[in-house]
Design a protein that fits this description.
The chain is an alpha+beta fold and 728 residues long. Helix content is 37%, strand content 25%. The longest helix is centred in the first third of the chain and has 19 residues, at 227-245. Bound molecules: ligand C2E and magnesium ion (MG) (2 copies).
């Protein structure tokens, strides 16, 4: 072995005593003691010291090295040479600097080894990585040596292995930056990233969107299948998210079932809406977790900088508000932030308060919508639909307040009231008309439900076969044993069961075979889609009907409004129809008037075909033409156009910029004009806002507005507000 001789007479050799004692030999007390003794009595102690050093080297705790004046290796501990995949002999004469690579120093300033060596500087515990074997790190110290004439003779130094420390430090920083379950960035990491992104983007006037995502019904999975299953599910969710978003660093798990995504340079709400829908669709596909199949959903809130906030706190808060709105709109949806959401969130809280006393104050009522046999137009039954008339706000849709009731624990009392009232009313109807009652999944999960149903039947005297309970597929998300037991108990009472809203959620035909349904209700969105060109919904409905017939179930198509839809439904052999084409929901009194004879038939009536979805609305917007800004009322908004009212006699072909507020501007051309009403066509189509409404794809950037206002008068004309046509 090539071992240099320690020569105690060289004064500079005694590095152990110099400076802070951190250099050569400074790491170990035995070496230091040995070195002192070398000075005192060279002959005996040199031998002793050599042995100690040899032991030390062999223990692997540290190693030594030396170079000549040209930086060529003259000594290196053999064990470390071997760790480098070489022998000490083979390394002799090699350039010391080339044995190492600098360690990624996480942004700290660090002098490089070649720099230090050429400067003949001393260095302490410089972290270095082996140039040959990728995963070894050392802290290397070195001292320059000079001869009596002050000429540089080379380096001597030591090193210690810091591989383990670095690994655990990396683990710790990984833990601090990444979610250990999913491997996604964690809350701390993503919020730092968002801070720096937004700060940089503000300088460059770029936009950045964020999405906040919350899983629907995840808690149910966790509670029924257990936490390990919940964890496994979250991992799969993370995998699906990554697949869609692509950029691993931009997806994070904030904790629990909440995720956040950063989307730099995206402000197009059409694209964002599509991405949010893709995410929701993907996450709503069934999962296989520990051998069980389970289904969850997701809701997404979107906020875009600089429009919806220019720092991360505002942006996240607003995305959160949008998420809250998306959930309030029925879950499984996305929503964009808009400033009215603050008011909407307030309203929702107020509604929840009012809902607590609504039953006691007699504000609830039931309406009944006929369900008609498609071939004969005979009414076979009705569906009971709860109506709430708020003392100040008037009628409020159950689509709005049922989810609030479910969340605020009020659904049980409300559901029981609906059930009892519907049974009482139906017991007095002539003939054997059935009544269908909606049962919330929360009611379905309550083991007391069969008792309540039995009691409602007994006290009203309604025969059980005239009561139909409508449940949605989400009941299958709970424990399958409990679900099966509930089905059995309800069927034991003799009531009928209908699967509601089929085609909206998870729509597994498997449920149909395993659960004792008497009827499948095909959701209106599914039926509507069927009349669109190229849609495969018709074929799917035909398959559902065939399966239902084989299983001796009835089918009902919901939400049929037009005659072309009715024609299609009849052609597809759907047995029953419920929709405005026959009748809107009516009060019990009105129903009694019609049903008197005991044989209630309705002639279908309605538009010949389903029109392009228009949103009935009454909304004030700005219409800008030349230097005039008119305030107009917008009605019948569709993606491609609208009606506006409020300006007299506008010539055809006039162009307006319609200002929907919050930077939403659309150029529109007048295509029809009569007195105070104009039909306008938009130059670019609007896009879905995720909640049945529309919004513009792009907004005018606050950067532009700020820039324009700086050169006021040039870019921003001064409008005169008027309601008389001022154009030429
Ligand atoms: P659902 O059970 O699917 O009820 C059918 C909904 O479609 C009703 O809305 C009905 O008015 C509407 N509809 C029927 N025909 C047409 C049509 O031709 N065109 C259109 N556009 N709509 C039509 P509604 O009354 O607003 O109820 C909404 C939902 O609220 C119901 O959907 C049901 O899920 C829930 N709901 C209503 N009453 C109750 C209740 O007493 N308990 C529970 N748990 N949920 C209820
Ligand atoms: Mg229903
Ligand atoms: Mg339905």
């Amino acid at each position: 072995m090539n071992r240099p001789v320690l020569r105690p007479e060289e004064p500079e050799n005694n590095a152990a005593t110099d400076g802070g004692g951190r250099g050569f030999l400074g790491k170990f007390g035995a070496g230091r003691a040995a070195a002192r003794r070398i000075e005192a009595a060279p002959s005996i102690h040199t031998k002793e010291a050599l042995l100690l050093l040899q032991n030390y080297e062999e223990s692997g705790q540290g190693w030594f090295w030396s170079t000549d004046a040209n930086g060529r290796l003259t000594y290196i501990t053999d064990t470390v040479a071997q760790q480098m995949g070489r022998s000490a002999a083979a390394l002799m004469g090699a350039s010391f600097a080339e044995l190492f690579l600098p360690v990624d120093s996480h942004g700290e300033r660090q002098r490089t080894l070649p720099f230090l060596l050429t400067r003949q500087s001393k260095f302490d515990e410089l972290p270095l990585r082996c140039a040959f074997e990728g995963d070894r790190w050392w802290a290397v110290s070195g001292r320059p040596h000079f001869d009596g004439g002050g000429r540089f003779t080379g380096y001597r130094g030591s090193g210690i292995d810091i591989t383990e420390q670095r690994r655990s430090a990396e683990d710790a920083s990984r833990l601090a930056m990444y979610d250990s379950l999913t491997g996604l960035a964690n809350r701390f990491n993503i919020s730092k990233k968002l801070d720096t992104t937004l700060a940089a983007f503000a300088q460059q006037q770029r936009s950045c969107a964020i999405m906040l995502l919350d899983l629907d019904r995840f808690k149910q999975v966790n509670d029924t299948l257990g936490h390990p299953a919940g964890d496994a599910l979250l991992k799969q969710v993370a995998g699906r998210l990554l697949k869609i978003v692509g950029d691993k660093e931009m997806v994070s798990r904030l904790g629990g079932d909440e995720f956040q995504i950063i989307l730099p340079d995206v402000e197009d709400r059409g694209k964002l809406g599509d991405l949010a829908s893709d995410i929701i669709n993907s996450l709503s596909q069934p999962y296989s977790v520990e051998g069980s199949r389970c289904i969850i959903g997701a809701s997404v809130g979107v906020a875009i900088s600089p429009f919806d906030g220019d720092n991360s706190d505002n942006l996240v808060r607003n995305a959160d508000l949008a998420l809250y709105a998306a959930k309030g709109n029925g879950r499984g949806r996305f929503a964009f932030y808009s400033s009215d959401l603050h008011q909407a969130a307030e309203d929702r809280r107020a509604l929840e308060e009012d809902l607590r006393d609504a039953l006691a104050r007699g504000e609830m009522a039931l309406a009944y919508q006929p369900i008609v046999k498609a071939k004969t137009n005979v009414v076979t039954g009705t569906e009971a639909l709860v109506r709430w008339t708020h003392p100040e706000r008037g009628p409020i849709s159950p689509a709005l307040f049922i989810p609030i009731a479910e969340e605020a624990n009020l659904i049980w009392a409300l559901g029981e009231w609906v059930l009892r009232k519907a049974c009482e009313d139906a017991a007095r109807w002539p003939g054997a008309m059935r009544v269908a009652v909606n049962v919330s999944p929360i009611q379905f999960a309550n083991p007391d439900l069969p008792k309540i149903v039995a009691s409602a039947l007994a006290s009203s005297g309604l025969p059980p076969e005239q009561l139909e309970l409508e449940i949605t597929e989400s009941v299958f998300l709970g424990d399958s044993k409990d679900t099966a037991a509930m089905f059995k108990a309800l069927k034991g009472l003799g009531v009928r069961l209908a699967l509601d809203d089929f085609g909206t959620g998870y729509s597994s035909l498997g449920y149909l075979q395993s659960a004792p349904f008497d009827k499948i209700k095909i959701d209106q969105s599914f039926v509507r889609g069927a009349t669109e060109p190229g849609s495969r919904n018709g074929a799917i409905i035909a398959a559902i009907v065939a399966l239902a017939e084989a299983l001796e179930m009835e089918t009902t198509a919901e939400g049929i409004e037009s005659l072309d839809q009715l024609g299609l439904i009849r052609k597809l052999n759907v047995s029953h129809v419920q929709g405005y084409v026959y009748s809107k929901p009516v009060s019990n009194d009105e129903l009694l008037g019609h049903a008197e004879t005991g044989n209630w038939m309705i002639e279908p009536a309605g538009p010949a075909r389903q029109r392009n979805d228009r949103f009935q609305m009454f909304r004030k917007v700005g219409a800008v033409h030349d230097n005039y800004r008119y305030t107009v009322v917008m009605r019948n908004l569709s993606a491609t156009g609208a009606f506006i009212e409020g300006i007299m006699n506008v010539p055809l072909g006039t162009q307006f910029v319609i200002d929907f507020g919050e930077g939403q501007l659309v150029t529109a051309t007048v295509r029809r004009s009569k007195n105070h009403q104009q039909g306008i066509e938009f130059e670019t189509s609007m896009v879905s806002d995720g909640n049945g409404g529309l919004c513009t794809r792009h907004r005018v950037s606050p950067y532009l507005i700020a820039a324009a206002s700086q050169q006021a008068g040039i870019a921003l004309p001064h409008f005169t507000t008027t309601s008389d046509w001022a154009g030429k």
